[in-house]
Protein 1
Amino acid sequence: MNKTVIIANLSYNPTGWRELYLNPKASHSYAAEFPGHESLNFNFDKKNVDTPKDIYGYVQWTAAPKNFIDGGIVLFYSRNTDTGQGEIVGVYCNVKVLTEKKTVSWNGFENNETRFNLMADKNLSMLFPIPLDAAKYKESQGKRLVGQIGYSYYNIDIVERIIRDELYEISISGVQQNEYKKLKDIFVYATGTEFNENSIDIDLVQQDELVEIFKTDKNQIITDLKNLDNKEDDAETITIKQKTYKRDNKTIAQIKILRDFKCQICGKNIKKANGEFYIEAAHIKPKREKGRETPENILILCPNHHKEFDYGLRKILNQNKDLVEFELNGQKYKLNLKIE
């Protein structure tokens, strides 16, 4: 049976929800005067509160989630008041919503006491080492990720997406291996399946992120692609919005956008559940032969035609900056390579 999933709102806390924090940028006066009860949500060793097995946390909601079934999952959303960006910051698993709040004495909170309304499995709960951009998980631009009552219900597939994305972020950071192992255990709890290490295609994930960054400005894409041969900087990586990407992945993402995510052979595209499109990039001159990521060497193809192009009987008949003509398994094709 699928587990109940909610995404719940947390007021921002730059200490990682491990220490008390007064937020002068909070939208309501209480948070600027008193620390929120969720200030200790990711301190998993609270004296006289947490146990070796269970941790306690708090969510400020106007009505408790009555349809939440014990053993479910809570993902935590917070708006970073320093950057203005919404982030997915952590997860609790094997959660029980407490019908009676647990109240304990704690200096610094209002009336020197704090409250908890969640209990979760310590070994299956964590603060994400790398917060995720929450906008990526919205069903539509106009829809809030978290409801005004403090939470929203979701299907289990959003947990799989978020945990997979966090595993990717940790894997490229090269650190935090203990968190990586714990997150794989969380993946198993959420999905019922082991995490496949080979399922993280770092290049494809980077390309998807870069598509989101560049998809609204085709004029800039055209300028960037036309200037590829004139660039003085040959660095293999590029930093965009304080994050490092392979320079070649930026180029491939831009070509995907310019080709409208459609296979250049059959004209089809593949729509994913989140509304985005899946498409692949094929090298005319293979990378093993030092083929570059440039518009005259990249075709945008569906998975079937990509494999046929790579493994089929292929002969290039004519190629320049504007087009490529080739024969593939006995059929001739003439495809556009223009940047326009």
Protein 2
Amino acid sequence: MKSEEKAKQQAIERLKASRKAMPDIRELANQILAGNLKALSQGITLVESIEASGYQQAFELTELLYPHSGKAHRLGITGVPGVGKSTFIEAFGLYLVEKGHKVAVLAIDPSSQKTGGSILGDKTRMEQLSRHKNAFIRPSPAAESLGGVARATREAMILCEAAGFDMILIETVGVGQSETAVHSMTDFFLLLMLAGAGDELQGIKRGIMEMADAIAITKADGDNVRKAKQAEQAYKNALHLFPPQEDGWIPRVTSCSALHHEGLEHIYELFEEHHRKLTISGALARKREQQSIYWFHTALSDLWRAHLLGNETLRQQQKQLEQEVGSGHKSPFAAAQELIKSLQQT
């Protein structure tokens, strides 16, 4: 425990030092384009910043690097607690770098603020991958809202792509709507599931199942192989009950053992088949377009909120309106309209 706390404190000190030593934004962008990992870490620290003073610099950096992004493959990975996401991601990441890819692993963890999880949690669980010269692992920041974490993760993805990483793995660590956030920024969505945990479909959200492009039953080794095959068939049957995906892709179910590095090649083949089919049909390009529009709406909402929070008069008006809404003296809709009118006048 002491070593974990010490590591956490050292990481915090490094983050503080990187903020102080932040170079010129254009120079930072050039260093990231050259593949400088220290510069990449500094850039991600900047886009993660919740301080108002960092917003403009983060915007400038993202704008400089945005034209150099978009060429990487984007994979979203989620799964139930205990499914072994970190073990799978390390094994799959090592498989990818051995095939010549440059892999960046990012995480969305809206629960980190509540749990106080270690800032180095992902790196300590993926020791082999984190040491590889063609891999980069970035744990998610602690944040007060999923929206803030998701925005920072998407901008971090842009920076990683500009730095030359051609495989971006985005992991959901928390639960709830984090799966939707990951789905909104990736090309291929992989759902990891366990076998032998009672009713195979119990507690599985229909929405998450519908988002999945593939389901992988993990820990399919030893005495668990038979249970994994049974679970595989159960999920195949369940997927037949869902409506077909808009892009024409039929979700697949497979099993794997990250511990023994078995089944990883099949998952990679599924991803390649998915990418090839959607590229030929034009569905991948349409998906990226829809995602960009979604993030435009998100950015618009964030900017309105930032403008509101940056204005003391508007903040005080918001507090007053909250009291009036809470006491029942004003409807939420009327209060929102009143605040929007004040925003328009600033």
